[in-house]
Design brief:
By secondary structure, this protein is an alpha/beta fold. It has ten helices and 14 strands. The radius of gyration is 24 Å and the shape is elongated.
Amino acid sequence: MSPAIEVRDLVKRYRKGKVNAVDGISFAVESGEFFALLGPNGAGKTTTISILTTTLSPTSGSVRIAGHDIVREASAVRRHVGIIFQNPSLDMNLTGEENVRFHAVLYGLYPYRPLYRLMPSAYRQQVRELAELVALGADVFKPVRRLSGGMQRKLEIIRGLMHHPRILFLDEPTRGLDVASRRTLWQYIEELRRQQELTICLTTHQLDEAEDADRVCILDHGHVVAMGSPRDVKAQLVHERLIIDAADRDALRRRLRQMHLSFTEDRHFDVSLDRLTAYEVVHGIGQPLTMLRTESASLEDAYLRILASSDA
């Protein structure tokens, strides 16, 4: 089976641009995978997503989505993808439901009817279920211009899920959502991914949202600077740490040096676990401790370390 997303030597240079916004990147995303594309502003994330979703043409390279070439088979690509962009794309003169209805009709999901109550019952049920999912409820029937920014975001999520896409592109999908709505949305997306082998391609500045990704790809200045599972990326760059202390600090200091461990000392001893496990260190110390705590690196720690080394 071919990958859900296959990117080879992708390049994008904007007109009058002095450098490539995307500069020869390659990656593949398997069907059912949760893939996160990360990077600072200007790294090339949104440009890449725009190319993958056929809203922007590449300068060179090739991209296949669900087996279809994005240039020669753009219409087929669009049938397989759902898109939730970071910038609103709603018609402010319509109600929320009317925005969803026109999207569904354009995708050929349902015949057009001028009123919601005349639409097929399957459509009405789907709209109600999705509106409840993102806690929009009856507000889906209000004019978009009367909805808050967060409510408009929820409406875009409903619209992006209506045609049951095989691949869902999420560009800052939870911006404007409260904590409860964010959690509910991610629970639903994860359930969809398991049941339908939905492929997720996420870009976000909320790095905690990428902690559960199968793989992350970090871009900087249009280049891939790191790729792998969040665990592997963190392990390569940021070691787990052991925070310890003892009543006899001199003896503890001597023992840590005898074990050739890297550590810093301030209020407590901060020991890098780059060679040994926490158990091995504690067992090797062999003296009573007054404090013992492990601290694991976050994806954000590794991300910041990668970007710092990339800019160096």
